[in-house]
Amino acid sequence: MHDPVTLWCLPNAGASAALYAGWRRHLPAVAGQPPEPALRVAPLELPGRGARAAEPLCEDFGALCDDLEHALTRQLLPGQPYALFGHSMGALLAHELAHRLRDRHPPRALFVAGAAAPALRDPSRFAGPLDDASLLAQMRALGGTPRELLDDPEMMAIALPILRADYRACASYRPRATAPLACALHAFGGRDDRAVGQAITGWRCESTGPTSVTWYDGGHFFVRDAVPDLLARMARLLADSRVPDAVAPC
User: Fold this and answer.
1) Which H or E run contains 172?
2) Where does the Thioesterase TesA-like domain start and stop, copy by copy (predicted)?
3) Distances from the Cα of 76 to the Cαs of 62, 101, 103, 106, 123, in angstroms?
4) Cα–Cα distances in Å, from 213 out to 121, 199, 205?
5) Would 202 disulfide with which of 23, 120, 207, 226, CB 3.0-4.6 Å?
C-alpha cells in the first residue's frame, strides 16, 4: 500500500487556508488500491487570518517564510513524502519553502498556479497605492471575489487589511540568486490571466527536474473551477517521475 503524499497548500494574497477546505472531497484514489487518497490536502495558514486571526499580519516576505518554514517543519515526519502547492502569492511562498528545505527534507514536487516565474515578475504590480479604493479596484479587475462581498463594508473591513499586508509582503519579495531546484516543478496557468500571461512559462527554468506547464480556461482564479482536474493531474504527476518537459528547455 502506498502512503499518500501530503500536499501542503498555500493561498493567494488576501485569502486563508479556508480556500482549500473543499478540496478533500475531490481527492483521487490511489490507482489499484482501495479508496485511500493519493494526496492528503493540508492547508498552511498564514498569520492574521482564519485560525490565526488573533496574530498580527506580516508585511515582510522573508519573515512570512520564516513563520511558514517553522510551521511546516514542525509537522513533517522523517521520510514523509510531501509536495507543495501555491496559487499566486502562495506560489512564491511555496517556491521559497522548497528552496529552504531542499537539503533537509526536499519536496517530491512543487506545483505553482497563477504566478509569474520569479525571474519574470513585474515588481511594479505591487508598487501602486494601497488605499482601500485602490485595493477594491484591483479586486474587481482580477475577478474571483463575488460582487456582494465587494459591496459589503463589513466584509471589506476584514479583507482589505489582509490584502494590503500581503501586497506589501509581495512588494518586499526578492528572487533567489541560487541554483535551481532539483525536484519536479509543474506550473498551471489561466489562458485569460492578464496579471500573469506567458510569464507562467518561466517556471520551467526554476528546476533541473521534470517540468511542465499546463493551461486551463479562465483568468487569474481559474483554479477554483479546475479543482477536480488539478488534483487528479497532480496525483498522476507525483506517481510518474518520468514526465517529460512540456516546454522547450531554457
Assistant:
1) none
2) 8-238
3) 21, 11, 14, 11, 33
4) 17, 11, 11
5) 120
For the question of residue 172 being annotated catalytic, the response is no
The conformation of residue 162, written as its DSSP 8-state character, comes to H
Supply the DSSP symbol for 47. Answer: T
Position 248 scores a pLDDT of 41
Which pLDDT score is estimated for 249?
46
Of 16, 88, 207, 212, which is the active-site residue? 88
Task: Write out the three cell numbers for 237.
Answer: 504527476
Q: How far apart are the first and last CA of the chain?
A: 38
pLDDT at 156: 95
Neighbour tally for 1: CB within 10 Å: 7
CA–CA distance from 7 to each of 61, 94, 127, 194 (Å)? Answer: 22, 11, 32, 27
**Strands in the chain per DSSP E:** 5-10, 39-43, 82-87, 109-113, 184-190, 211-216
Residue listed under C-alpha cell 463575488: 146
| Neighbouring residues of 52: CB distance < 8 A, sequence distance ≥ 6 | 45, 46
C-beta separation of 165 from 155 below 8 A = no
pLDDT along the chain (250 residues), means of 10: 84 96 81 63 97 97 98 92 97 98 95 96 84 94 89 95 96 90 97 94 96 96 94 90 44
Q: Which residue has the cell 514523509?
A: 80
Note the pLDDT of residue 244: 40
**CB 176 within 8 Å of CB 206:** no
This prediction has a pTM of: 0.92
Q: What b/e string do you get for 226-238 counting C-beta neighbours within 10 Å, with b at 16 or more?
A: beeebbbbbbebb
